[in-house]
Write a structure and sequence with these properties.
The chain has 217 residues and is mainly alpha-helical. It has ten helices and three strands.
Length: 217
């Protein structure tokens, strides 16, 4: 996808995420999301950070000194105290904007809105469509960024020595026993959302499940 296609896809997912948020009950806003330690409200507040200027980002870092993840978490929780309608309005206000966070690219903005949209939609039971080609573009970037600074915002999974293959589009990465499933599920897996394991099949899926079980003990 070129930049124009990336931003068009980002805007579609922003609007679909807003539709989900507008349908949530007050109780659903407070549910745990798929993003560990964050409620649905926290995740929605995080999505408003895509428009932060360099100055705002620096002020957040000074207010909450620490790792990048700590700054992101703390700043999102600051904004989670905003009224629900303002959070929704700010996400809607990002539509059409091509601003992205410092040091990142449109690819990371796409990953952010797709993955966090699912963090909200899945636990609340509200469907949020992501075209397979869009999920595949995001998954390819996550795979390519393994081991880099950009990967540190996600929980690492023991996926080395496995082949991930989509069943709904022409996409695969890695070598070894195969993990098969919808490409959106594979994207969520790559970003640490193990709730998708029941959607996956293959010898590699069984091996991954065993690795995760061993890691918990």
């Amino acid at each position: 996808m070129n930049d124009d296609e990336l931003w068009a896809a980002i805007d579609v997912q922003r609007l679909r995420t807003v539709d989900v948020l507008e349908a949530l009950t007050p109780r659903e806003w407070e549910r745990p999301s798929l993003c560990a330690g964050w409620t649905v409200r926290d995740v929605a507040a995080h999505l408003t950070l895509q428009q932060l200027t360099l100055g705002s980002a620096l002020r957040g870092a000074l207010r909450h000194p620490g790792s990048v993840n700590h700054v992101i978490n703390a700043t999102a929780r600051d904004r989670a105290s905003l009224p629900t309608d303002r959070i929704v309005a700010e996400i809607r206000g990002t539509v059409g904007s091509r601003r992205h966070n410092v040091g990142l690219t449109p690819h990371e903005t796409l990953i952010d809105i797709v993955v966090h949209g699912q963090d909200i939609a899945v636990p609340t039971g509200h469907p949020l469509e992501v075209p397979p080609e869009v999920a595949a573009t995001a998954a390819s970037r996550v795979w390519a960024d393994r081991g880099t600074r950009k990967a540190k915002v996600f929980t690492a999974l023991p996926s080395d020595g496995l082949r991930l293959a989509a069943t709904d589009t022409d996409w695969s990465v890695g070598e070894g026993p195969e993990v098969r499933g919808p490409v959106l599920a594979l994207l969520l897996l790559l970003t640490g959302r193990t709730v998708v394991l029941p959607q996956l099949e293959g010898e590699g899926a069984a091996a991954l499940g065993e690795r995760l079980a061993a890691a918990r003990h």
